[in-house]
Amino acid sequence: MPFSFSSISLERADEYRQLYSQSPRKSAWYSFGSLWAWRNIYGFEWAFEEGVCWIRTRNDALWAPVGPWGAIEWKKVLPRLFPEGRVFFYVPDGLGRLWRELFRGGVTVGEDRSQWEYLHSVQELVELKGNRFSRKRSHFVQFVRRYPFRYRSLEGDALVSVLEGQELWMKEQSVSPDLEREDAAIRELVAQRGHIPGLLAGILEVNGSPVAYTVGEALDDDTIVIHFEKALRRYSGAYQAINRIFLENVADSFTMVNREEDMGDEGMRVAKMSYHPVDFLRKCTLSWFPE
């Protein structure tokens, strides 16, 4: 490639966020908070070239470019940068459609349901009205009646409070490499909380001890993403409670909530579908070949 990559840094965070704000489809994976949290785990690097930001991992997997897709002359840019063709991973649906229209036979798409991000109505998840949400509503009511809880919204330095909740949650789990990586990502995000605008969090406490927490990030004026949400299993209804109370207290200015993907885990898929998404942000693997 005729350009060089460098490690993701706080120094160019504003430049990246500006490009991200111009992206027609804002995948949760590409938010600056997400990239920063997982940067050491995936070995993320970036390069600012041709009016967009290119992202790759340590094993040279190239992700979709971030920026104003419609303003880029892709028929000139892609052949110049990748004369032998290239595979792009986690390509949001908007860019995939654009490239297919431009290159037609020069593009092949590998669909992967596990990459789809779940989009929900904030209003629906706060109100939990109707038969569709009867079980969620019941669990929430049980939690409220059973436990003398306190909810706190967290911003700035107060975000460190979620780490106590994370430690308690980890003690309930069977340790695995995936959970250890996620734990590291959560700590990275909290450590640089002052340099990541748009971070929002909330915590539920019972008798002064954390029982559930959520960490989210504003993707734009309309959508908030839930990066991490944990609840102690011994507190029945805690997941339903933190989900609803967090959105009610923090996300009232947003219309949509992105609850990220299910990673192909069947149990997680059932749980996410039970909140009745109103749409999906689809991602795919896209291979481009010069014509």
Describe this structure in words.
- This protein has 291 residues and is of the alpha+beta class.
- The chain folds into two domains: 6-116 and 282-288, Gcn5-related N-acetyltransferase (GNAT) (Aminopeptidase), CATH 3.40.630.30; 118-260, Gcn5-related N-acetyltransferase (GNAT) (Aminopeptidase).
- It is built from ten helices and 14 strands.
- The strands form three sheets. The protein has a seven-stranded mixed beta sheet with strand order 8-9-10-11-12-7-13. Strands 4-5-14-6 form a four-stranded mixed beta sheet, covered by helices on one side. Strands 1-2-3 form a three-stranded antiparallel beta sheet, with no helix packed on it.
- A hairpin with a 2-residue loop joins strand 9 and strand 10.
- Helix 2 (32-42) crosses helix 8 (177-191) and helix 7 runs antiparallel to helix 8 (177-191).
- The radius of gyration is 20 Å and the shape is globular.
- The mean pLDDT is 95.
Residue-averaged pLDDT, rounded?
A: 95
- Under the CATH scheme, which architecture of the largest domain would be assigned? 3-Layer(aba) Sandwich
**Main β-sheet: number of strands, strand sense, barrel status?**
7 strands, mixed
What's the CATH class of the largest domain, please? Alpha Beta
Sequence of secondary-structure elements: EHHEEEHEHEEHHEHHEEEHEHEE
Strand content: 25-35%
Number of helices: 10
Structural class: alpha+beta
Radius of gyration: 20 Å
Topology, element by element:
Layout: E1 6-7, H1 13-21, H2 32-42, E2 45-49, E3 52-56, E4 62-63, H3 74-81, E5 86-92, H4 93-103, E6 107-111, E7 117-121, H5 122-127, H6 134-146, E8 149-154, H7 161-172, H8 177-191, E9 199-206, E10 209-218, E11 223-231, H9 238-250, E12 256-258, H10 266-273, E13 279-281, E14 283-288
Parallel strand pairs: 4-5, 11-12
Antiparallel strand pairs: 1-2, 2-3, 5-14, 6-14, 7-12, 7-13, 8-9, 9-10, 10-11
